[in-house]
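Submission sheet (multi-component)
Chains listed below:
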Amino acid sequence: MGIISNLKRALSRTSIILSKSIAKDKIIISELEKVMLEADFGFGITTDIIDMVKNSSDKESAIEEIKSYLISILQSVEFKREFPKGKPYIRMFVGVNGVGKTTSIAKIAKSDKRNGKKVMLAACDTFRAAAIEQLEIWSNRLSVPVVKGSYGSDPASIAYKAAEEAIENMYDELLIDTAGRLHTNRNLMAEMEKIARVLKKIDSDFPQETLIILDASIGQNNIQQAEKFASSIPLSGIVLAKIDGTAKGGSIFPIVRDLKIPVLYMCTGEGLDDIVMFDPVEFVESIFPV
Ligand code: GDP
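Outcome: structure written.
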């Protein structure tokens, strides 16, 4: 099955919601407004789209206009990844517990390994013993090494050790899992800053990427989560997880528009192959059922 049909299936809930507003010969404006808010497009984007539909002469041109507008939001922030020569590409993964962080790391490790990269993991969520164990399970299953410390040990020192090992053993990529406990937010943010700071002591380019994992099903609350992390560490991109289980696929638009952070990956299920590089055109075509 092709990427687009997989994506269409994963986004079927959001697209079913949108299709409710499209009758045979016209778009039902009151219904469109309701379903867009339901799908978490947010008030600003919904209002822009309603204005577009009102001023449009026919259904087909209205749909084309809506699609171009939505694509332009997603394309408004760009990201270019360049793997460096002679040193590892380090990616930190941040996000609150339960969003799908560990699973996303495993998916990316598998995909990059398949593309010929020598990948290493670092278990820097030392706050939860289960998080270390989970990463070890993925490391065994994928046959990629993991650097870890004991429960409660300093995450920044594990990241430091992992970066040194990755350099020494010429790994192409180091993927760093971090903690995501919500109840001690201030400490968590200080911990993220410290990990980034110690990595920079080794090489000022490290970490080359910091990705925030967001759970698509929680909709607009994601904006607050991302803002909190962005206030302590620069975020290069978003991994949008659990897009398969939700009718709130519209939340991606206010997230990108308001935070100006690009979506780089989208996770469409629990399996290790359920991840796609994010493509704005494919995404919009998949949620717009015409
Ligand atoms: P973490 O606490 O952020 O590391 O979250 P985990 O990676 O442990 O994932 C939490 C739960 O969400 C697990 O049951 C995963 O199988 C599930 N999960 C992760 N990604 C996805 C996804 O893209 N789709 C679905 N349906 N479930 C997911």
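Remark: The chain has a mean pLDDT of 91.
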